[in-house]
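Lab manual, section 2.4: Encoding a predicted structure.

Procedure: take the sequence of the chain (261 residues), apply the prediction step described in section 2.3, and record the output as structure tokens. A sample record is shown.
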Amino acid sequence: MEIIKQITNEFKTIDSIRAIALGGSTASRYDDDISDYDIYIYTDCEIDNQIRTQIAKKFAQEYEIDNRFFETGDEWRLKDSDKGIDIMYRSPDWIEEQINRIWKECGASVGYSTCFIYNVKNSIILYDKNDWYKNLQESISGSYPDKLKKNITAKNLPLIYGKMSATFTEQITNAVKRDDLVSVNHRISAFLASYFDIIFAINKQLHPGEKRLVRFAKGNCKILPKNFEENINELITTSKENKAQVLQKITEELKKLISKI
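Recorded output:
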């Protein structure tokens, strides 16, 4: 982690930076040999690309500056290493708005509802001007709101079953009939996004993101559907002709789980 300290020391001299945090799988201890280092830099204004490039040159054998495919960020490949550095730049006002919308107002999304809360809560503080990030973490340190649990379930459950039409299951079934494999995969991903959002909500667990969801759920959720892992694995690996049948099994087990809560 010495390299992370050195990178932090380079960035923290920039006046606009309010905090630097190490997030992702490394911070939450779910990392493996191919995991990158995810560094989140909270800055009151955008940092000039030339400054970011100068810092990258000190540590990286190759780099991309100012990617904007998702969050604004830079990607490095460290010198003498295959390890990647993924730097994401965030506005403090923006993350405060997200926390207010999700944690305080209990706003739900279609899938991944509490990912930003998980990210902030589980990140390791590397630099913190005036304890801003520490206070941010403390603002979400309380128990998981009951209203948020209800809102996430209410937002996502009808998309799995209960709507009059166009549930994910119906869309997947129709895509299979059309032999549209791209649509099948797209809708299965959407189905699983809402499915896991519900699972984590009813267990009052923050959503960790898109990786290692089965492992995380088995390790942290006391309430899981019967044959949870087996059914998900079957959904992914079975032929397209059998997917509707497996979806039905997953949905039935989820119904049974919800009815007991």
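Check your result against the sample. Residues 42 and 92 are 6 Å apart (CA to CA).
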